[in-house]
Amino acid sequence: TPVQKVIQLLENMLSKGKGEKHAEQVQFAAFKQFCDDTAVEKKRSIKEAEETIEVLKADIGKYVSDAAQLTKEIAGHDEDVAVWTGDKKAATKVRDIEKADYGTLHQDYSES
Q1: Whole-angstrom Cα distance, residue 52 to residue 42?
Q2: Residue 89: how many other CB atoms lie within 10 Å
Q3: What is the pLDDT of residues 5-48, one digit of tens each?
Q4: Rounded CA gap, 67 and 73, in Å?
């Protein structure tokens, strides 16, 4: 009868709808699991990156401090080199004068 056909069609639609709903629930559950796993992984990665950033910031601070200290030491060494260069020039000048005096004195003694 026509009523039974309508009922049968409605029952088929109901079973088809339940099947599609079940398939969608399975697909959604898989997607939700993927999202949850990805979120956990991303949170862990972010935490590790933040820890690494803190370590690197501390290293940068230390290296900046070391660079400032070494800059001061280099300035001191540059000053020492400048003083020693001046001392060397002065000593060379004195030696040249003494050599000239010795040469003159030696020549005087040699001629006498």
Answers
A1: 15
A2: 10
A3: 999 999 999 999 999 999 999 999 999 999 999 999 999 999 99
A4: 10
